[in-house]
Amino acid sequence: MKKIGILTGGGDAPGLNAVIRAAVKTAINEFGCEVFGIRNGYDGFLEADGIVPLGMREVRGILPRGGTILGAANRGNPYARKVIRDGEEVTIDVSNEIVKEIKKLKMDALLVLGGDGTLHIAHELAQKGVPVIGLPKTIDNDIGGTEVTFGFDTALNIATDALDRLHTTAESHHRAMVLELMGRDAGFIALQAGVSGGADVILIPEIPFKFESVIKKIRERAEKGSMFSILAVSEGAKPQDGGQIFSRQGDEVYVPRLGGVGQVVAAYIEDQGFESRVTVLGHLQRGGTPTAFDRMLATRYGAASVRLAARGGFDRMVALRCGEITDLPLVEATAVPKRVNVNGDAVITARNIGISFGDES
User: Fold this and answer.
1) Best CA proximity match to 153, nearest among 281, 251, 298, 24
2) Mean pLDDT, range 337-355, rounded to an integer
3) Contacts of 71 by beta carbon, 8 Å cutoff, 6+ apart
4) Which of 91, 93, 119 is nearest to 8 (CA)?
5) Do 3-150+290-321 and 152-287+341-352 share a fold?
6) I need a surface site. Which of 50, 90, 143, 306 has the fewest CB within 10 A?
7) Which residues are catalytically annotated?
8) Domain covering 152-287+341-352, topology
9) pLDDT digits (tens, 9 = 90+) for 51-91
């Protein structure tokens, strides 16, 4: 193994730089090979300055930094790239051009740091002969085959801190405070932050809710003397008689953008006579310094991915299982997205301590 590449695709997440640092150091210290970073996801292979060398100097001091020094592109799908031709915007497949560039660069391995979409693309490129290894990155923690993705713990801590802060103003002003959190189809952030932050109501995509159940919980608390309530709501939560709420629709390239369910829930609460406010945490969950857990996990993933490349374990993804780093086929990891187990211990525990999921009769 003489040369490897690294790219970061999809949305940014805390821990990306820690992975890059660990991969570069392991590649150089243990295997004496060159490392190159691909800027802006897969797009870097098609850009004039898209490939940059990564050495010890380039990764110095990046361990605690959020974001990614390589840049990311959450719409950088080489199988559906938007370009302007003859004055019109068209969608084309440039995957063969990328494969050609990778072979031209004589890369012995390509480490792909990304979520479900980025890793799906990685597997498809592997079918075309690209020596790909995937690393599971997403704050939503929704990639199959691994117990946890790097970036999730930091987002969870940020969400929990926000709930802690909302408690004081909610209690002071006797309000229902709604915190809208990320979580398109998986409610891990809202569930775990809600339990950790003392939420009274948790709404997640896996459990469609009834507005009547939500207000029932708030009313019961008021009748018992608790004149405030805290609600942790995933952006992908939906009522039983409706669908998810979007701020922008999608197309063949742009995914639909969720947003607004917190406002809808808060408006209903107001209509029922309880003052309510909404906080949308948004991209704050992605930014800032990664937690110690995410730094450690990301470092382990980065080093393990290089070792896996040295063994020729391509078209696979590194993963955490039973506390140990292992690996599995990318096709298996991306086959079934991970979701909250609605009958699992975490949900049962939340119900045991009196948290409502908005589905109670």
Assistant:
1) 298
2) 97
3) 8, 39, 40, 41, 44
4) 119
5) yes
6) 90
7) 140
8) Rossmann fold (3.40.50)
9) 999 999 999 999 999 999 999 877 778 998 888 888 888 88
CA dist., res. 82 & res. 173, Å (int): 49
Cα Rg of the chain, angstroms: 22
What ranges do the domains of the chain cover? Answer: 3-150+290-321, 152-287+341-352
How many whole angstroms separate alpha carbon 150 and alpha carbon 114? 10
Placement of tokens 């929704």 in the chain = 142
Closest to 230 (Cα-Cα) out of 158, 156, 179: 179
CA angle 345, 346, 352 (to 5 degrees): 85
Look up residue 92 and give its two tokens: 């084309």
The CATH code belonging to domain 3-150+290-321 is 3.40.50.450
**Residue 332 pLDDT > 80:** yes
pLDDT category of residue 251 using cuts at 50, 70 and 90: low
What are 317's two structure tokens? 């993804």
Q: Do residues 234 and 224 make contact, with C-beta atoms less than 8 angstroms apart?
A: no
Expressed in angstroms, the distance from the first to the final Cα of the chain is 61
Model confidence pLDDT, tens digit, residues 6-46 = 999 988 999 999 999 999 999 999 999 999 999 999 999 99
Lowest mean pLDDT among 143-152, 206-215, 241-250: 241-250
**Residues whose CB falls within 8 Å of the CB of residue 172, separated by 6 or more in sequence, listed in order:** none
Q: What is the pLDDT of residues 123-139, one digit of tens each?
A: 999 999 999 999 999 99
Backbone angles phi, psi at 14, to 5 degrees: -60, 130
